[in-house]
Amino acid sequence: MRAELDVTVALARALLREQHPDLAALPLRVAANGWDNVMVRAGERLVLRLPRRAAAAPLVEHERAALPLLAPTLRRAVPDVVVPVPLRAGAPSAALGYPWPWSVAPWADGVAAAATPVPARRAWAPTLGRLLAALHRPPGGGVLAPHNPFRGVPLRQRARPALAETEPGARLWDAALAAAPYDGPPVWLHGDPHPANLVVAPASHHGARDRLAAVVDFGDVTAGDPASDLGSLWLTFDAAGRAACRDALTTAGAGPGGAGWDEATWTRARGWALVYASAMLAHPDLHPGLAPIGEHAIGELFAGR
């Protein structure tokens, strides 16, 4: 999606001067331009998450509401993985012409998993499995997860993805629609745990292995069918990585009775993977970094892996 507003370092500094003046002197640089947000690194330890279009503004508020609830459980499951709970809240600024809420969050050192070789991701696939097992629990205590009509819903509520117009895509999509629907309680979902939202600390020396350093961008957080999140495993891993992640999910007690998710869930997950791959390939000119993720997913899905 095209940005509706050009978020620059100058704008970020002006917002800090107006609302968080103690941070305004920090060095700033644009770290990433995402689908919804611009990330501006502030000094060594902080990052500003600034929406670049109106549709992303509620997602900032969803993160603020959900992450403080989820972080303690996730940190117990994977203590070495950063869960970026917002540290400060930014408000719209009429004076600066910036109309949306924004956040200051902790910075996580590393590189996007999307920039690392797919086989190397097998090293931290079990870590992601443990995190997802801890996350995929029903909200408790009367908590209502943020509403998201695009994640965690029955696949029949999603538009038929473009890749379903191909012969192998049609087979996958039809199988996903025919699979038994999710009939358990809605579970917490990240919403977008694809490799552009997974931060990896590269191996520091010969013989060492990469590790998962952070899971970022919880803007699509909601509750629903876990297959919605599990579909991202085809975007992230090869068959060996997915198997390692799935084994860790089961060992960590995911699914009904802690026995792991059933085959119908994984069949629906392939349908979600088709949805995500189609979206990532839809605008390669606007999001060139996402297209290779979609291409990898197609290769995995269409090869029956």
Descriptive notes:
The strands form 3 sheets. A 5-stranded antiparallel β-sheet has the order 1-2-3-5-4, with helices on both faces. The chain has a 3-stranded antiparallel β-sheet with strand order 6-8-9, with helices on one face. The mean pLDDT is 95. It is globular. The longest helix is centred in the N-terminal third of the chain and has 21 residues, at 57-77. A hairpin with a 3-residue loop joins strand 2 and strand 3. Helix 2 crosses helix 3 and helix 8 (263-282) runs antiparallel to helix 9 (291-302). It contains 9 helices and 10 strands. The chain has 2 domains: 9-106, Phosphorylase Kinase, domain 1; 111-302, Alpha-Beta Complex (Aminoglycoside 3'-phosphotransferase, Chain: A, domain 2). It has 305 residues and is of the alpha+beta class. It has helices at residues 9-19, 57-77, 125-135, 167-178, 227-230, 233-236, 239-251, 263-282, 291-302; strands at residues 28-33, 37-42, 46-51, 88-90, 102-106, 111-112, 187-189, 198-201, 211-215, 222-224. GO terms for molecular function: kinase activity. This is Aminoglycoside phosphotransferase (APT) family kinase protein. Pfam families: APH.
